Amino acid sequence: MTRIADLPEFHMAEWLPDEAAVAEYLTVVMEENDPAALAKALRDGASPRYETISRVLQALGVKLVAVPQGT
Questions:
Q1: What is the pTM of this model?
Q2: What is the distance between the alpha carbons of residues 14 and 42, in angstroms, rounded to a whole number?
Q3: Each residue's pLDDT tens digit, 47-63
Q4: How far apart are CA 62 and CA 56, in angstroms?
Q5: Helix axes 50-60, 35-42, angle to 10 degrees
């Protein structure tokens, strides 16, 4: 039986082929309003500050956009 500790680490970034996929993934994570998912996407155990998230988005070539809920 395989133990969880023996499994290789999973890095979502390795499965996102282009900037559009990265943007879509981040959009879904933010729409789910799950800060833990975003933190996990950045690094396990991380507690990212806004500045960190902003720099990551900028490095990925995507931007955070505020839209009214329900649209």
A1: 0.45
A2: 12
A3: 667 777 777 777 777 78
A4: 9
A5: 60
